[in-house]
Amino acid sequence: MQSDKHIDKQQRVKKLKRLSLILGVLVFLTFGIIAGYYANEVREFLKDVNEDTPEELKDTSEQDASLRDLHPISFLILGLDAEGEGEATRSDSIMVATVNPGEESTKILSIPRDTLITLPNSNEQEKFNAIYPITGMTGLIDFAEDYLTIPISFYATLNFEGLVDLVDAVGGITVDSPLSFTVQDSNEKADAIVIEEGIQKLNGEEALGYSRMRKQDPRGDFGRQDRQREVIEAVIEELLSFNSVTNLTPILNAVRPNLQTNMSGQQILTVASNYSAAGKNIESVEFSGAAEYVYFPSYGHDLYVWNPYEESLDEARRTLREHLELDPSSEGLPEENSNDEINN
What is the phi-psi region of residue 253: left when phi exceeds 0, alpha when psi lies from -120 to 50, beta otherwise? Predict the structure, then answer.
């Protein structure tokens, strides 16, 4: 029989999965709401966050018609993190969000970083989080579209190092940790950050350590994903508070160098104005699989991977396609009901 404590933890994780929304999207919504108060600063922020977009991804004019007509849209959002000095930056957190303004709902799929994939144009196997440093953002978007059989409307990246300044800018966040642990700080000082089990307030350094730790969590990367979602939700709550609205400048300064997107300033404001109701109804989409060790010739040894069950992955694909009002069978996915309506 499960203990009340274990059941409470399960309920908390379920609630986080249901209520969490990707930080980049909700930052857009927040700034859209308060843009009237800080018009010039917000305008400069909107210009800066898409400044480093790859040339081939800058033209998003095709999405303007979808936004104008309130069609469903999708986001690929990455949390970027280099785990050691000199290491390539990998997509530490990989999320896809579909936003349907007609249904006033958002669905979020978290792709485990260790998901086993085959690299495009080769037979070489890799983990999903290796695609970004190998192919860049353009190649990752192409791969994600093929992998999930959905179009990606926009992308955004958040550098997790930016959490330090952002959390400090909003005055800290409150979390409810499922376990106690120590972790190094951003200067790699061992055991510098002490996290206790239970409710506590974290500053920026502590929030970064809380969201990055993986090896001491018995659930591994899945436990870390839940803690990252919890941090995101807590940051959003602080961003939407009156205190944050009246102290916007330090928040903008914290976000500006750490957030990148190919959305134009006008597109961000359009989403903030017309799609915000979808953020009130959030559902987590998951696919199941099995953990195993696979030999990688390029590394010369076995590595831990997450191998998704094809039937479960197809179900996740179908869910996202239906939420985007796409034909669930047009990409070769098995149909569940031949009488389903097709939305084009």
Answer: alpha
Give the pair of three-digit tokens for residue 309.
């069950």
CA–CA separation, 208 and 228 (whole Å): 9
What residue spans define the domains of the chain? 4-288+315-323
Q: CA-to-CA distance for 343 and 278, rounded, in angstroms?
A: 19
Q: Domain 4-288+315-323 sits in which CATH superfamily?
A: LCP protein (3.40.630.190)
Alpha-carbon distance of 195 to 278, in angstroms, equals 34
Q: Under a CB-based contact definition with an 8 Å cutoff, are residues 206 and 195 in contact?
A: yes
Across 150-203, the runs of DSSP E, i.e. the strands, are: 154-159, 173-177, 181-183, 193-195, 198-202
Dihedral over Cα of 221, 321, 28, 241: its sign: negative
Tokens of 294: 């696979």
Could you report the per-residue pLDDT of 278-337, keeping only the tens digit for each?
A: 877 778 888 999 999 999 988 889 999 999 999 999 999 999 999 999 975 666 565 554
| DSSP code at position 129 | G
What type of residue is 295? Y
pLDDT at 280: 72
Of residues 89 and 143, more confidence is placed in: 143
Give the least confident one: 47-61, 118-132, 224-238. Answer: 224-238
| Among candidate residues 240, 236, 210, 235, the one with its CA nearest the CA of residue 225 | 210
In this structure, are residues 328 and 321 in contact, taking their beta carbons and an 8 Å threshold? Answer: yes
CA 207 from chain centre, in angstroms, equals 16
Query: 198-202 and 289-296: which strand pairing?
Result: unpaired
What's the burial of 293, exposed, middle or buried (CB within 10 Å: 0-12/13-18/19+)? exposed
Backbone angles phi, psi at 27, to 5 degrees: -60, -40
Phi and psi dihedrals of 182, rounded to 5?
A: -120, 150
